[in-house]
Specification:
Glucose Oxidase, domain 1; about 160 residues; alpha/beta; single chain; about 20% helix
Length: about 160
């Protein structure tokens, strides 16, 4: 890939928004970039399972807002679905699990931390809506770049830095 977030911040400072601190990469890919697909969850990840399992990712990055609820949003099975369907990465405003099992799956997975507990009873989520957390607004169709230095969002894909 070769396009680093720091380079984009240097070459396009007026076009990037930088996600606030606290997110770490737990996935097997060290970085990712792609068009944003969004989903908001209410205490259950069943809508995210459906998205990752049943829809082609085409290099997209799924941004998930679970309002930082303390349960695992993504684990080994969802990472396998993401990889099988061609998603570049997942960014979770919340927690994940199965870190040992997912570290070799070549999909980036950024989250606030880990939690052993899985999601709570089935509730309905919302897809393709604007999400706002960490000082950044994530809009469907916008573009995200993520690496070990951070996560940035732009209105559209930027030329290489």
């Amino acid at each position: 890939m070769g396009d680093y977030t720091a380079d984009f911040c240097d070459t396009h400072p007026d076009k990037v928004s930088v996600l606030g601190p606290g997110f770490s990469n737990y996935g097997g890919a060290g970085m990712c970039q792609g068009e944003i697909s969004t989903i908001w969850l209410d205490q259950n990840n069943s809508d995210l399972i459906t998205l990752l399992r049943d829809e082609k990712g085409d290099g997209k990055v799924v941004v998930v807002d679970a309002d930082q609820a303390y349960y695992a949003i993504v684990g080994e099975m969802l990472m396998k679905y993401a990889h099988e369907n061609g998603y570049a990465g997942i960014i979770v405003n919340g927690y994940i699990r199965d870190t040992e099992q997912i570290k070799d799956i070549p999909v980036a997975l950024y989250a606030l931390g880990t939690c052993s507990r899985k999601s709570i009873p089935v509730t309905q989520g919302r897809r393709n809506i604007s999400l706002s957390f960490g000082g950044v607004e994530f809009k469907p169709g916008s573009y995200v770049y993520a690496d070990n230095d951070g996560i940035i969002v732009t209105a559209e894909k930027l030329p290489s830095a």
